[in-house]
Amino acid sequence: ILELDGTSTGIKIQPTMYGIFFEDINFAADGGIYAELIKNRSFEFDEPLTGWKQQNTKTLSHNLDSGFLTIYSDDAKTNKNYARITINNDQNYVLENEGFRGIGLHQNSRYDFSFDLENVSGNISALNASLIDEKGAVISTVPVLIKGKGWQKYTAVFSPSKTVEKAQLKITFTGKGVVNMDMISLFPQDTWKGRKGGLRKDLVQKLHDLKPGFLRFPGGCIVEGRTLAERYQWKKTLGNVADREYLINKWSSGFAHRLTPDYYQSFGLGFYEYFQLSEDLGAEPVPILSCGMACQFNTGELVHLEELNPYVQDALDLIEFANGGSATKWGKIRTEMGHPKPFNLKFIGVGNEQWGEDYIERYKIFEKAIHAKYPDIKIISGSGPSPDGEFFDYGWKELKKLNAQIVDEHYYNSPEWFTKNAGRYDDYDRSGPKVFAGEYAAQSVGVVKPDNKNNWQTALSEAAFMTGLERNADVVTMTSYAPLFAHADGWQWTPDLIWFNNLQSYATPNYYVQKLFSNNKGTDLIRIYENGKPVKGQNQLFASAVQDTGNEETIIKIVNTNSREKLIEISPKNIKPGKNLTKITLTASQLSAENNFQTENIKPAEERSALKKGKISVVIPGNSFIVLKLK
Ligand code: AHR
């Protein structure tokens, strides 16, 4: 028998309780949510022809090749490179782009094709752009006339005659001569909110369905960079997308088994777009900035304390970018980009996953400067990657002394660790900093193992653990699973919350666990007990309960990690249970079961019934997660 006590605990479930961690890992941004379909559209990769192929070009010789492409650079620009294309043999020179693991196209959808071209010499009068399927058959073609001299933007629209997962773009030219080309781009018209050059709709929809309380961006380790020079610099991600400077993605070197050298950040999804996405999702924006320490798993390079000022200034300027009036320097840039209204930033993260004295020294400087100018901004500080380790303890001890506001904890661990740690926060100091469980995920094999699965066992253990997060909502105020996205053909890290390919995406069981918690977070914590004690693993049962005052609903979450079904009786007191019971069940036939592109077998099933007075009897299937809503 579980006793449900509706007496007020005085503990609010923060609107930020369940959020999203976004990092450009596993092709989450370029090749993923950022809907650009052309890889290396402006020849900016270190190897500028990455993604491009020139048919009938072998020798780069005027006499022997049908044509050839060389890279020119304009050092005065941030987007330096462009292609100079020399056509010797009319119609025979073909330039192809392979997309990000192919180009995904939907039959009869419309795609905006555009490029910048300068007609340099000769008589090139047109080009023909085609989309071709895996066998080379043309599925859409558009002729584009070349007019006049000087750089000009050209546009056309494709409408493919069939759906293809791995198409390519093919360009042929009419005439002979020399042209310069840059920013060769292809976007679906059907993006999230129909924005030109916007985000992939199916992927954003999945985020929207989570009803996230916050969006943390842009990572993760890419905040820090392998070296300081390769850290994420938000100021370089603003303005015209064609002028944003490319950066090799930290995850291009991944881990030994997943080298991805063709992984770059175009920053088409930059800080403005992250803020805009947060707004679209109704989520608090939570930017995390470099604290002057490169990733400690790479070089661990440090900025000297005397040289930290530009990093601190980046944080101050970011707050002005988000919240400043249009007359301020950075508020003006936001306004010019199309958002005069401030984004109302409330949180900022200093460093991603850093630890030790080096971190604390730098954190102190940031904290002083940020709070001197913006006392209301809440600062998130890091505690390192290992929740059971020495670094972690050191960080917490120091951060407590410094009255840090929110500490970001990361844990990737076994399903057993998650179920065992459902009581993790029960004894946390109630007067200390709040906790942001900023990255966590159960690992079916081991941390950063390539064969980790998003199976039901991992999701169930996370659900059990999350009842502990919720029971401790007075300490834990923000939580997010990580990583968020993974491209089936381009990932570096597994498990991940949402998997996608060029055409489709599917939600993992872990996603549905997140969704059930987030969509049913309520507003006020109440207590659910067994024999007077919190339900945190006795007989392999885990539970938490909340009230949603706006909705006048009581919501109970119960996780059964035993393989046998349990009949539970819930005895409510100090509560008006209402008349209706909604029972949402998430379970699977086996612990090893997974969802995939073909089927989402593991997804919530909802049933409604009338509530009788007195005790509530519910059957909790073996290995299941149940949400009960009383109204
Ligand atoms: O989520 C993947 C990585 O794990 C993040 O980039 C990093 O913060 C953590 O080590």
Automatic annotation (TrEMBL):
Keywords: Glycoprotein, Glycosidase, Hydrolase, Signal. InterPro entries: Alpha-L-AF_C, ASD1_cat, Galactose-bd-like_sf, GH, Glyco_hydro_b, Glycosyl_Hydrolase_51. Its EC number is 3.2.1.55. One of its GO terms (molecular function) is alpha-L-arabinofuranosidase activity. It comes from the Bacteria. Residues 438-624 form the Alpha-L-arabinofuranosidase C-terminal domain. The keyword Membrane does not apply. It catalyses: Hydrolysis of terminal non-reducing alpha-L-arabinofuranoside residues in alpha-L-arabinosides. Belongs to the glycosyl hydrolase 51 family. PANTHER family: ALPHA-L-ARABINOFURANOSIDASE 1. This is non-reducing end alpha-L-arabinofuranosidase. It comes from Chryseobacterium lathyri.
